[in-house]
Amino acid sequence: MKISIKTFRLFSMAALALVMAACSSNDDMIQQQPAQPQGKKMHFTATIEAPNSTTRTVYTPDKDANNKDIIKVAWKEGDEIALIHGGVKDVVTIGTPNADGSAPISGDITVGANDETVVLAYPAAAVYSATHYGTFPFTPNPTCWDKAHAQDGTLEFIQNNIDFRMGSGKLSVSGDPATASLKESVKMPSMISIWKLTLQDNTSAALSATAVKVKANGELVAGATSTAKSAYYLCMVPSFIPEGDLVIEATVGSDTYTYTKAGGVSLTVGKFYQSTVTLTKPAPALIVSPAVGQVIGDDGKNYADAAAATSAGATAVAKIVYVGSDNGEAAPYNHGLALALSDANGGSSCKWKTSQADAGHTYKPNSSSFTSESGLQYNAMHNSEIDNYPAFKAAIANNGTAAPTGCSAWFLASGYQWKKMAGAAGLTNLGLTEGAAYWSSSERDASEAWVFLNGNWYNINKNTGFRVRACLAF
């Protein structure tokens, strides 16, 4: 089974940090274990500690002493835990929980050695194999993890599908025939947090949404669909939330309401969060029946040309050079792209970055075959240190020209978007300065970024000067 990079990152980053904190060093986790005799089994019994966080196994909404919402958790008899040791995966079963919340686990497992490192993973179904992958001792079942993007907004769904926990310990083996236990009871910390979102509009009226998406830095990190309701419980994996602005989208009828938190959020595994989120309905579109070659006025409307804008009392600020939803941007700016009518930075060249250092962009092609990228997303990444990114700063400022209502902010287009614009409008209709090379927001590696010149692509040192032409998405 093929595992995507995103799926592996989701699982391995969270799990590695938790296991290291549980009770075993990283060296212990990845040491080469001796091959075990295949087919031979020994009986295993041990105890796992009570859940010490918001997750597993049975979720019960409750109130604390201060009448605040909490989630009570307990192990569930009959559930299965994977036991990974010596390159093999065994499965043990949870027994009746004890009065203190701990629970016995038992089953027949592959014969192992005394003091051998063992990893416990819950639920067992999430573990696809015991094969080493880098510093992580087994590979996850992608089907389980994909459900984080396809929730239904209920505690029951999280409980039954995406409650993941992991811990580690040492085998204690004795007797003939051999029986096994653990040197001590083992903690199995949660890998997720739970976020309850209560949705309302700007009048504080409840919003009944049929879908909710949470995005960080433009990347989907959690999603749920349901019958219309105003409260959603979402499983969140903190290590899978990239830095950057957080956006919550709620589908209400045919409208998409949005909320943006600049700088994002910081969540901790095992915690329960709840927020009342005020979302806004997008303003009616001002651009109607857009076409390549039209202009966008400073009033946010589209016109046949600059003269038509002037006649209507507006000033043309950008030229539409691509129309279509496949423009690299998310709603509501996924209808097309327009280029400013003149070069930014007063027409002077500027550097992509003041140093040859990695900017952290997720897609770094070694050729000009760009995948769908958001230039707007890349620009937002650098707002906090914009002086270090002259080309981005120039595009965002665009010589002091305000971005029209209904359009995105000005930004430096990605390589993907430059290709879309050149393909739709044609090179001669982009309105670029003849013979000039222009920066894209696409990064090749730590030292170089991509430059667009007469339909060709070149990877050039970031501290070289080239022109900048600002872009709008609408």
Topology:
Layout: H1 5-22, H2 26-30, E1 41-48, E2 60-63, E3 69-72, E4 80-85, E5 88-94, E6 103-110, E7 117-122, E8 127-129, E9 139-140, H3 142-146, H4 155-161, E10 165-174, E11 179-182, E12 193-200, E13 209-216, E14 219-229, E15 231-236, E16 246-252, E17 255-261, E18 272-278, E19 295-297, E20 302-303, H5 306-311, E21 316-323, E22 336-340, E23 350-351, H6 375-381, H7 390-397, H8 415-425, E24 438-443, E25 448-453, E26 456-461, E27 465-466, E28 471-473
Parallel strand pairs: 1-11, 12-18
Antiparallel strand pairs: 1-6, 2-3, 4-5, 4-7, 5-6, 7-10, 8-9, 10-11, 12-15, 13-14, 13-16, 16-17, 19-20, 19-21, 21-22, 22-28, 23-27, 24-25, 25-26
Structure description:
It is elongated and about 90 Å long. A 7-stranded mixed β-barrel has the order 1-6-5-4-7-10-11. Strands 20-19-21-22-28 form a 5-stranded antiparallel sheet. It is α+β, with helices and mostly antiparallel strands and 474 residues long. It has 8 helices and 28 strands. The chain has 3 domains: 5-142 and 158-182, no CATH class; 193-278, Immunoglobulin-like (Sandwich), CATH 2.60.40.10; 295-473, no CATH class. Helices cover 14% and strands 34% of the residues. Strand 10 (165-174) and strand 11 (179-182) form a beta hairpin. The relative contact order is 0.10.
